[in-house]
Amino acid sequence: MENFRKVRTSEEESPLPFPDLPPDVVEMKVKEGSKIRNLMNFAMAQMELKGSRQIVFSGCGRAVTKTITCVEIMKRKLGGLHQVTKVRYKTLLEVWENQDPLPGGPAQNLTVHKNVPSICILLSRDPLDPNQTGYQPPEPRHGLGTQLGEAGEDTSSSSTKGLKRPPPPPREELPTKKLQVQAPDSPRGSGTTDRRPDHHH
């Protein structure tokens, strides 16, 4: 392949894996060389200025990580977005041209079919079916304070319980210490048993 140069790459066209999408839904096709800033400027304009209710981010191969990054940025900026993630495989068609063809012979091109992982993520302001695979509910924004407060109460209550708990452990440790003393020193243990009848007498 050292004499060949990749001249063209095309994706296999396939429908989005989300049912009941509006016909005018915006699909952000993320490429390996796409700039996140440009993608996000366009996507945020669609959601905020044009009032779109749903948007889809898709990418394959090396663009998968960048696709996920765009989704996370939008979720932080807008908040309250329902998410459905679908992972599948797509076929890429790569055309390679021979840079050193035989003299007088036809140009030789190779077409390579590559299966690469692909990800499609739907973000929606409107609720989605929570039972479908890949669904993620909106991340709570205002609930963080209450959750921390509850956690704080739990820790304080557990700490107060912890103050009440220390007395029992020594009681449990005492018999274990007696057992440890009796186990290695069995003669003394028998001596103690001999002394007990003396006390009774």
How would you characterize the overall build of this protein?
Strands 1, 2, 3, 4, 5 and 6 form a 6-stranded mixed sheet that branches. The chain is elongated, with a radius of gyration of 34 Å. Helices cover 40% and strands 27% of the residues. The chain has 5 helices and 6 strands.
Summarize the structure.
The chain is of the alpha+beta class and 201 residues long. The protein has 5 helices and 6 strands; from the N terminus they run ββαβαβββααα.
CA distance, first residue to last residue: 103 Å
Helix-strand string: EEHEHEEEHHH
Structural class: alpha+beta
Give the low-pLDDT segments.
Answer: 143-166, 172-187, 189-194
Query: How many helices does DSSP assign?
Result: 5
Question: What does the main sheet amount to?
Answer: 6 strands, mixed
State the shape: elongated
Helix content: 40-55%
